[in-house]
Amino acid sequence: MAAKILIVTGDAAESLEVLYPYQRLREEGYDVHIAAPARKTLRFVVHDFEPGFDTYTEKPGYTWPADLAFSEVDPGRYVALVVPGGRAPEYLRNDPELRKIVKSFFDADKPVAQICHGPLLTAAIGGLSGRRVTAYPALELDMQTAGATFQDAEAVVDGTLVSARAWPDHSGWMREFLTVLRAKAPVT
């Protein structure tokens, strides 16, 4: 039986930040499940950078079915957690069931990969205090307020926590996360 990895997300997650790790981790041999507030078809978005805009733009992205609802998740069945970005973490951090799930991964020192706005969720459970992280650069102050040391880098590894700025950093992010996974939770 393959080791299981959990991705937690919701509507308005960045399409690439959900689907790239989903496919890459499956390619590596892991069994990957996507959890959301409810079992439903999720509506992702595409964040892109266009000349003349001071920030990213947002367009409709892919749809994808959630495998299970947060209320159905048993964190003990999973060896690692992935927290994608987009706008989803802004509202998901208010979900008490999800906060319990995320906290259990940090309490057990299991590998956690976060990207873009995903650290808003890990900050909500106190998981960033005293850690080195990166995130979407506009979140630097949020990361500092959460007690983290912000680094503007492609990927930052702090123990079992691996963070990245945004989807252009995917290859570095997954390379570092797979190094942690292979050491802490190899495919069986």
Automatic annotation (TrEMBL):
Domain of life: Bacteria
Signal peptide: none
Pfam short name (any one): DJ-1_PfpI
Domain DJ-1/PfpI: 4-178
Family that this chain belongs to: Belongs to the peptidase C56 family.
PANTHER family hit by this protein: DJ-1 PROTEIN (PTHR42733), DJ-1_THIJ_PFPI FAMILY PROTEIN (PTHR42733:SF2)
Name of the protein: DJ-1/PfpI/YhbO family deglycase/protease
The organism of origin for this protein: Streptomyces anatolicus
